[in-house]
Amino acid sequence: MTRTLGTSPPRALIFTLYGLYARETGGWLSVRSLIQLLGEVGVDGQAVRSAVSRLKQRGLLVPEKWDGLAGYTLSERARDVLLEGDRRIFARPRAEGDHQWLLAVFSVPESERDQRHKLRSLLTQLGFGTVSAGAWIAPAHVEGLTRETLDEAGMAEYLDLFRSEHLGFRPLPEQVARWWDLETLNLMHSEIVGTYRSTLDAWRDSTQDDATAFVDYVGLLTSWRRLPYLDPGLPRDLLPDDWRGVEAADIFFELRDRIALPARRHAATKAPEVTFDPQVRG
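Structure (tokenized):
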């Protein structure tokens, strides 16, 4: 079966494959297996090689031969990224209705502007919204993850964290819409719903073959995994009436439950280094 997965770039699909199928066996995939697996979703061999080269340049893949076969292994940095992704992508955090917030207040000297950029990037990836240039906000439930992430990145010296409540003066839903780009987030959730609701319906109606499961799951996970880094799980009562995030998450998790195992089984038939273990869902 060959299908093209929309506009997902090959490098994103490759990183999905490594996250799903390479880590249990040392983090290595051969170039031949990558071309075989990506061919299943409509990516040609030259595009695979070009994407692998870019991932190598970014320090995510390391060239390595196993038993004379050319391939690439995940770098330590890539393993860390994937491990963090597991904690974010496969969880469904949602703030309670008490509307407690975590404030990050920082000031980085002009002489260290690179550190300022790094800090802002980290806060964005943690799902923080922007109150002002030096004050960012997130639901209080991300405190533990925020502390850990900033400590590991060596950023803790640049900021202070506060727990807070909103006391006035504008309505809180109005402020949330200023602090986060809810329109763009909702559009991204809507794209998941529009693309994969019919896919889920098809799997509910009948069990399909493993090849279809592989194509559907690689596409689903590649599309979904950006969202948990941008949507911190804001309280539902502060979100627009037409918010699609809950529906998108429902689709992702139900579809994952249905197709992750047959997708892995198919990957194992196409790439000898991929193992099929019914206990490992991915």
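Residues 1-6 have pLDDT under 50 and may be disordered. Residues 160 and 274 are 44 Å apart (CA to CA).
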